Amino acid sequence: MSIYRNLGGVALAAFCLVSLPIATSLAQDAEQESEAVQEDGDAAELSPITFTAPQAIGGGGNYARSCASCHGAELEGSAGPALSGANFSWLDRSVADLHAYIQDLMPADAPGSLSDAQVSTIIAFMAQKQGMEAGDEPISTDPADLESVRFGQ
């Protein structure tokens, strides 16, 4: 029995020795990529979000069906965090990041179930609830188009 315990300890130590350099390398790569993105981001400011009133209205329905049970009818938060106000964590960040987060991880009970168009309208609704005004230019339903768009004003 003690041989198996010792072998397990040796295997764990070997795994750690092999994994540590790989993890360190990945962390350094991610840090370098983050610095490059930050440098690029300084040169190219993010544009404010645009959306139409019909998109925000449609997003309100999508939000009510898919988000309100956790985030509250008025985006005030309940089981999930608040999605409006000063503590909203996506202000001044790329809308593409927010879109990807919602697309991949929300709603919590059915992640990945929302279409690009549904996610875009939910973001339009969230922007309107944050106090941003609808205009003539719609929010894109293509996440790639949202890379240079920020959520904040």
From TrEMBL:
Highest taxon, organism lineage: Bacteria
Name of this chain's protein: Cytochrome C oxidase, cbb3-type, subunit III
Region annotated Disordered, chain positions: 133-153
Record-linked SUPFAM superfamilies: Cytochrome c
Keywords, in A-Z order: Heme, Iron, Metal-binding, Signal
Taxonomic lineage from the root: Bacteria, Pseudomonadati, Pseudomonadota, Alphaproteobacteria, Hyphomicrobiales
Recorded GO MF terms: electron transfer activity; heme binding; metal ion binding
Stretch forming the signal peptide: 1-27
Residues in Cytochrome c domain copies: 54-130
Gene3D superfamilies xref list: Cytochrome c-like domain
